[in-house]
Write a structure and sequence with these properties.
Blueprint: E1 6-9, E2 29-33, H1 36-39, H2 47-51, E3 53-57, H3 61-66, E4 71-74, H4 81-90, H5 116-123, E5 128-132, H6 137-146, E6 151-155, H7 164-181
Parallel strand pairs: 1-4, 1-5, 5-6
Antiparallel strand pairs: 2-3
Bound molecules: magnesium ion.
């Protein structure tokens, strides 16, 4: 059996469209959460820290992601809290693999995303799709030069979150690489 490509999934941007003014109208539910990474930048006594971060999530995203021919993996600064805090609201299992970062938000010497090099290391030569709001052309160029198998870097605008067109793109891309591998 051919191994499925990895789907390396970010939280803020693709699943939580934090710039969307109309998320609720589009079927998103609104939550208050206190992930460690978010709390670490706040005074614990502040009103903001007490209330928690507003997170919008779409209940259809989990089933739609699970239906894709990928192996889902969290690639987010939420790390393991994506499994405990995000997954239950969107219908994903609470035990998906989680990318362990050497350092959160590390400054990259070549101006890449702080995730780019660790993700290529994580993929270890396996085809992957990376779904994130922070992908830039520099990341695409670097991955094309340093990753030996197909990689799809799919940038999702935080105003939109994952949309139908993105699910189609992922489906088409996976079909393309599986056809090429036959
Ligand atoms: Mg993000």
């Amino acid at each position: 059996m051919t191994e499925r490509p990895l789907l390396l999934l970010d939280v803020d941007g693709p699943l939580n469209p934090f710039r969307s003014p109309f998320a609720r109208l589009r079927g998103y539910t609104s939550h208050r959460m206190k992930p460690d990474v978010w709390l670490s930048y706040r005074d614990p006594e502040s009103r903001s820290a007490r209330r928690g971060a507003r997170v919008r999530l779409h209940p259809s995203h989990g089933p739609r992601l699970l239906a894709l021919p990928f192996e889902l993996t969290w690639a987010t600064a939420w790390t393991h809290q994506a499994n405990t805090m995000i997954a239950p609201h969107i219908g994903l299992p609470g035990d998906l693999p989680v990318v362990e970062w050497p350092e959160l938000f590390a400054r990259d010497p070549d101006g890449l995303s702080w995730k780019t090099r660790p993700l290529v290391d994580w993929a270890a030569g396996r085809p992957f799709a990376w779904v994130d709001d922070m992908i830039t052309p520099a990341d695409r160029t670097w991955v094309a030069a340093h990753h030996p198998t197909p990689a799809l870097l799919l940038r999702i605008h935080p105003r939109h979150g994952l949309r139908d067109r993105d699910f189609s793109t992922l489906t088409r891309w996976a079909a393309g690489i599986s056809a090429a591998g036959r």
